[in-house]
Amino acid sequence: MPLTKSILPGAPKELMETVHYSRQIHEWYEDIYGDRLKFDPAGNARVAIYANGDIWEGPIPIMLGGLLAPSRDLTIVSEKNRQGPKIFNPCAHLAGITQSRLSRFSNDDINEVVLLYNLGLRARKVFQMFMKHDVLFAKAEADWSAATLHLTSQKPDFGQSLYSSSQMAEKYMKGLISLIGEGNPKQRHDLQKLFNELEKSLEGISELSKLLEALPQKASARYEYSSNLQEAYLAHKASLELVGTLGSAVVLKSFPATI
Length: 259
Hints:
Blueprint lengths: L12 H21 L12 E6 L2 E6 L6 E3 L9 E2 L6 E3 L10 H4 L4 H24 L4 H18 L5 H22 L11 H9 L21 H4 L4 H26 L5
Parallel strand pairs: 3-5
Antiparallel strand pairs: 1-2, 4-5
Helix pairs in contact: 3-8, 4-5, 4-8, 5-6, 5-8
Protein name: HEPN domain-containing protein
Organism: Celeribacter halophilus
InterPro entries: HEPN_dom
């Protein structure tokens, strides 16, 4: 059944009979996903950014190849500097941003945009490196996408976003444990125990355990209580930082030649 709002004259009878339902489904997708129905090369790699009192969606470029150079000037998207590397203005890529709104961003807002883009770029890099080693990495990346979607949707679901961030962390750590050959973690669901297992093989990661405090430990977290924006956003940031930093530690241990 095509997800379309209209059917051309002369269409088959069975298609005409389903057009009412097709319209409803299409409108539901538009209501929930909005412009995400359009193709975007950023794919799953997007971050939610809280700035100037709202949540914004920032697509992470496939390959930055330069420097993050934030600016309140919306006309500065990206450009090549003859004297240096290409620059990329993340503020200009926020979904739905206008010059009027961007002009009201405080320095803290700008810093938050840069922070989330850096977390997203780092996470995307390690996912690209590990994706072929275990299907869990693809599943974890899909959870990242879901966490962002449920935060930035026109009808946000903070509980689902919180749960997706937790699932991202769980599947990612399981993938890392399998990658470095430290036992079979597939049946474990306790984030702290998974982290403790990684800590046996990776040096200097103990400080990261505090990030787990922002992530629910049980699947029932998505319906046991009503999550809020702050909790879901903190979990989003924590999961991205966990992914990027743990990934770098694994690269140093197992793939030093790629650094």
